[in-house]
């Protein structure tokens, strides 16, 4: 005998069963619920806590996923000599032969950082990230044709020269790294033995496919010390990767050196005499911490035959500081500005004036629109537009301290626009700028009190 039930009752039963099934599904983890506060996918149903892998776990579990090769690790100095209760981080080499971009990558970092970034190395959700940066794809504007070439320049060594007119904001190069190294380990430090760091560096290079090994070993060097260490010091960019300092297990950003062979070949070209002559920088680099991609973008309109160049030093520092910083690459800059004492004197004076104005703004009452206009003009004259977003953010914060929320929001939004382009849509700098504007909007709606 069959019991007849109404359509409404059947629907109620169906919904109840679905609710019961849903309650059995695991709850997607959050950054805070993962042991190492890992970066997670923005898509809830794809979230999972990445495993913390090192040489010991690889042996115990017979698994080193998501890495292609079992990691090699070394303990820090103090733990090698004496076991301590406070566990300091290991330093390891991690290698994957197939990232999301289809390229290999070797990383010298801590197990905590490796776990923190594992999901983004293999599945960074490019469409989501491209949408977050206004639909701009991670590929050169002229793809697949390059509007430039590398050639020998008279009395200059090798350089990159435009073969056609290049418009301002054109994306010229897009490349993921082949090697990343925790910056702290690349310098003299009290955590890890130098010989251990060099062993890990050698293994990181050897674990790359032959094609990438040839690319890396063909890069310029200064002829100092172990060759691969020399190549890394000569050709890498400072990038932010994973957890704070790569060892705290807390959310943040850690400084690493990133090796991008195509960009290094094109822009970090050092002749044997150790001097590189170029025009003032016509391009800038933009880094994406969510994908590790480095882009080279035209800073201005570039004419055919004009040399392409990037700044080796932060845009806002003085000439003496630039000279000292460039010694890291082992050469002396002989660009038009650095070789003109009169121009250097004027440039340093203008940069000092920018700094003096910003120091004045530490007293909020001294902020005025004419002073802001003066800063904007000086920034343009010095070719420091890439810093304008940060300056607007500072100005917005000063207005907020004065209680002028409309002006604060105006300059806060300007900062977001400039930083979105020059720093990148997923950079820490843009995150800070956006958070400032969001706080102002919450204040406007009465959703929160204002606290500087």
Automatic annotation (TrEMBL):
Q: Which InterPro entries does the UniProt record give?
A: SET_dom, SET_dom_sf, SET_domain_protein
User: Which key words are in the record?
Assistant: Signal
**Domain of life, per lineage:** Eukaryota
Q: Which SUPFAM superfamilies match?
A: SET domain
Q: List the source organism.
A: Triangularia verruculosa
Protein name listed in UniProt: SET domain-containing protein
Highest lineage ranks of the organism? Eukaryota, Fungi, Dikarya, Ascomycota, Pezizomycotina
Which residues belong to any copy of the SET domain?
Answer: 146-313
Secretion signal, residue range per the UniProt entry: 1-22
